[in-house]
Design goal:
Elements: H1 3-22, H2 28-38, H3 41-67, E1 69-70, E2 76-77
Antiparallel strand pairs: 1-2
Length: about 80
């Protein structure tokens, strides 16, 4: 256990007593789930589709960047493509 944990507990205890230590904040995952539950189904599906498209775009960008090379002058050299 780190010293920061103890300092945090002492701070909570000094502000709110024993009850302040019993209060647990939701994890980021729990917060995300509650936000998604609040959205209507149609908005949730739109958000999922937007995230899928962004994920696809980022995967393509990563693939392209893996093929690029950094030159000595600091510029990026794009790979040569074969022409059909």
């Amino acid at each position: 256990m780190s010293g920061y944990t103890l300092v945090g507990w002492l701070s909570k205890f000094n502000k709110g007593g024993k009850d302040a230590l019993a209060i647990k904040q939701p994890s980021p995952r729990e917060q995300f789930k509650s936000i998604m539950k609040r959205l209507p189904k149609e908005e949730c599906e739109k958000e999922n589709e937007r995230l899928r498209k962004e994920n696809e775009r980022l995967r393509a960008e990563n693939l392209l960047l893996k093929r690029c090379t950094l030159t000595r002058d600091g510029t990026i050299s794009m790979p040569h493509t074969r022409e059909a």
